[in-house]
Amino acid sequence: MSSPKIFNGPGAQRAINAAHVEAESNENGIGFVKLMGRHSGFIAMYATLASRDVDCCLIPESPFYLEGEGGLFEYIEKRLKEHGHMVIVLAEGAGQEMMTKSMESNTLEDASGNKVLKDVGLWLSQSIKDHFKKIKMVMNLKYIDPTYMIRAIPSNAADNVYCTLLAQSAVHGAMAGYTGYTSGLVHGRQTYIPFYRITEKQNSVVITDRMWARLLSSTNQPSFLGPKHVSEENKETPPNGENCNGVVDIPQVTKE
């Protein structure tokens, strides 16, 4: 479980606040922030909700397109004409499929076996600049990439207590003879969770859920979704391993 400070603490918020100041200080200013999030947009989503200054949040789970009616470029133009500035928050995994169409495919992997992603922040910021140059509209874009600085901050009291509880639970489980598990919080209770349940599925933002609806209400951005995308998202299982009744299905860990 990630610490809440990554989402709405001083790390991500400092970058978004700086982008907002830069955007307000320039004619048709755009503050563009790229945050961590290779496959899931939780950090970008919660940082956006905490800020209340963001006009558009782009995450891997929510497809978007650039040109044409209802596209990102049209929304940016509309926002700049109405308010004179805007702030965009982008998760690093968003828009990768559009980059592969316009650039050479990347098959490199890092030391951990993760695919090395192309820098969608630089690519998208340059695409925005090219679009406004094409339509001859003045625009000033400031790009901010805080990378690991959003989590490289001192722990607070809540972090220290949580880590202590995790360590104590792990020791209690080991002394009781359990193996192949990790300790964690489920519905506010300390639990033992099997390793395979931790890694069997990628936890993702459900864009038909309430939290994403709150974000759309906060930013006033379009969903960028067609009926096909919505129907596919409705078929997704609820997040965090919950069933429709909100009950977490976690089998017992084994004893040696």
From TrEMBL:
Q: Which GO terms describe its molecular function?
A: 6-phosphofructokinase activity; metal ion binding
Renumbered to this chain, region (Disordered) spans 224-256
Instruction: List membrane-spanning regions.
Output: none
Q: Which InterPro entries match?
A: PFKA (IPR050929), Phosphofructokinase_dom (IPR000023), PKF_sf (IPR035966)
Query: Which UniProt keyword terms apply here?
Result: Allosteric enzyme, Kinase, Magnesium, Metal-binding, Transferase
Q: Which Pfam families match?
A: PFK
Q: Where is the Phosphofructokinase domain?
A: 13-172
Task: Indicate what this protein is called per its UniProt record.
Answer: Phosphofructokinase domain-containing protein
Q: Give the originating organism.
A: Brassica cretica
